[in-house]
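re: ur question from yesterday

yeah so i grabbed the chain u mentioned. its 283 aa long if i counted rite. heres the sequnce exactly as i have it in my notes:
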Amino acid sequence: MNDIEFSTQFGAIRGWQSGVGKTIICFHGWQDNANSFVPLSKLLPNIQLISLDLPGHGLSDHLIQPFYNLWDYLPALNEVLNQIADNSHESLTIVGHSLGGILSLMLSTFRADISKAIVLDSLGGISVSEEKQVQNWNKSVQQINQLSTWPVYANEEEAITRRLNSDIQLSEVAATILCKRGLKVVDNGFTWVHDRKLLRSNPTRFTESMWLQILSSVKCSVKLYYGTEGWLNLIDENTINRRKSVIENFSEQEMLGNHYFHMDTGVKMLANCLEKDLTDFED
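ran it thru and got these structure tokens back, copy pasting raw so excuse formatting
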């Protein structure tokens, strides 16, 4: 793997690339980092993976605004895609896990050069009623002065244990991979590198009708891979089915595992599927 960096007017976006051949751009989930796709990269030597740390995550620069609304990620990522497109002269394929999947779909509503969005356990974000928007604003504003600094852990093992305790679907192997890029050395130990502001509630969320409008505006083909025990199964079935129905070119496949199937139980199957997806698309 080689380290890469893209300069944007919103700060530097960093990541790594591996393999050769057709390019896939990878976006990880909330509070994760580019290492989310390390297990997949080891199985795809004939595909060039460009795995990026989202703004405020991993080694990428933090945004200056007080919140990370979904649309706040888009300007920097759009600039990065422009640079990749200028160099590759081919249509773009994006693989996004969780938050990364949401952002992939949002980018696909206005970028005609995205030919395929492959989303992992993700199909749009949390929706709220119009009545709850004011509550969201109040909650978010109250949090502005409530964030303290990240805790310091005596060693990496302690930090990995903390990460495991905060996400019961994450395996120890996957947590170790993410923490390798997600920690930095400070006085007396280790602490997280991602922006503490990520913990603030988003002041504005989309209503379900807005999500349906966004998904119906996606211009590319969409392939959803979801875990048998993933988070997508926690969303109301009728809501998910409505979202699927408004995407013009949509297909899906169930994968063995939970929300992080792409890092452990389902990674081999996913690698095989991605190779086939790219071949079928080119044909």
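noticed a couple things. The mean pLDDT is 93. also The chain has one domain: 2-130+205-282.
anyway ttyl
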